[in-house]
Amino acid sequence: MEQQIVHATTGRVRFRVPRVQRDPAYGELLVQLLESLAIVEQVRLNRQAATVVVQYQPHLLDEAAVYERLNQCFEQAMVAMPQPFPDSAAPADAIALEDYQAQVEADARLETDWERLGLPLVALGLSLLSGPLELPLAVVGTTVLASAWPWFQRVGHQISQGHPPNVDLLDSLWMVLHTINGQFLAPALKTTLAGARADVRDRQRRQQLHRYPSVLMAHCEYLTVERQGHSLTIERQELQAADLLWLRPGDLVPADGVVVAGLAEVEPAHFEASREVWVCRPGDALYAGSQILTGQVQLWVIRSGWQTRLGLITHLLHTEPVYDSALAHQQGEFARHAVLPTLALSGALWLGTTGVYGPAIAPLQLDFGSGVQLSLRTVMLSAQVFAVQQGVYLPTAGTLEQLAQLESLVIDARAGLPQPQQAQILIQQLRQLGLHIYLLQDQGRPLGGTTEVTRDRLPDLQAYLVSQRRRVGWISFGETCSCPEPTWLPIRWQPPTFDPNAKGVVLLEGDWSALGRGIAIARDALERTYQNVALIALPNLAVTFGGMFFGLHPVVNVVTNNATAFIAEFWHGNSTQFRTALLPRVSTTLPLQPLPLEFPQLAVAS
């Protein structure tokens, strides 16, 4: 084999791997495979020296087993390729209007620190030293304008494409006018702080995307499974639901499933909330990416590949399907229509103050929704990932928004109703939140607090809900979803297979409480988004009007805007913990009263 051990001590080994010098993709893949092992604590790759240093936990496996696992990673990296991602669930035209300060650059390329911060830092330094050192104003001004080049590029692109002016035009004019008037510090500070936020964001994204899960890589790894009573040897990518396979010490769990036999110590996958080693027994769930440390278990496969929790989270982090919500479109439309009135206001102040540039330039710093944009990339995406951890898949932020705003829920129980007692508890919680619950079935026991509807009355119910413009969710239990209205939100109950890009909520496990958790997470995320909008917009209005009427220095405006944006994005927005309880306390014996309906032909169960 190409790799050679050049130094080894207990818990640490250094390999010489010449290929990593000439093949960066191989080196990155190798690091990801090594880091996926439960025994590995840290991997350091030195491309110039062509070495890979692995630190591992020697007490988990004997030395021979450790080296066997490491060598398998080297073999797999030579043939492994990441499986292609499914297309994003968000349509291409779902990208809301974005300003540079909110998203900095629209492309997905991760820039280097120098590309992002080099010129802005130089401009900031020259601005601070221009007075004491009496630097030429032309040199300082040119540097400041050069640091704002990304804004100018986006404005030029908008104009060349025939698009209406956007917020980038206001930012560009603000920086140009301040620079022309010799106020270098404010625009230089603006480009530096915006670049710094983008740099922090990219570092976080690199950390999230660095570990491409090993179970989502295509390589020649064979598994022996039992399928329909027959023993088969298949490649890992050929795993199917209902396959049975044994997992032994050091094995990476290749799919989501349930333990049916055996006992083992397991280290959870990196996406799970707790990384503490635990003992799994028959009946426990195991998720792809976990690793068997000791013992052995037999796994009954439920989901594999992109349909595992690990696959769905990886898909969300790479595609970021967060711009299809109504809130994003509303913010985009508002920002688009507010640009020209803002320019008019600035011109009116210029004329009204007889050419005093300070108050006239101040309105150009009005914020038109970066709080929404930041929350979409942080709060919404974090909520989608957290929901998958809780057993609920929300493919886009638009789906999350619909789930948070549900007013009615139709339960299609024509194929049977699973777990009616759990359903009764959730219905009670939803009723206390003001939701109308309809139970569609031809026969079966009624559920308290629901309006019963038979198959022949479904058209009447559909017409009623449409006429009332209710936000409706439709939960079904078959292999396919029969949601009759395209504007309603489909909710699928533990489908055997599903398209990760199909619009609608997917309950990954047969559990009514998962739906309650999903609604609570969605409502919490939407609430945080509104809080972020207020957190950014109100201080921005205060300092902007302060500049217009009280001569507030523009540096105060820049610091305030970026500080609130930083808080919204990295402190309040990136929280990994969302509310999962619909109500603090729920009494299961609370009597349910029929809701007053304007559709008297439907009987409400008491």
Automatic annotation (TrEMBL):
Record domain P-type ATPase A: where: 224-317
Membrane protein topology class: Multi-pass membrane protein
Compartments where located: Membrane
Pfam families linked: E1-E2_ATPase
SUPFAM superfamilies, sorted: Calcium ATPase, transduction domain A
Superkingdom to which the source organism belongs: Bacteria
Full protein name: Tlr0816 protein
Organism: Thermosynechococcus vestitus (strain NIES-2133 / IAM M-273 / BP-1)
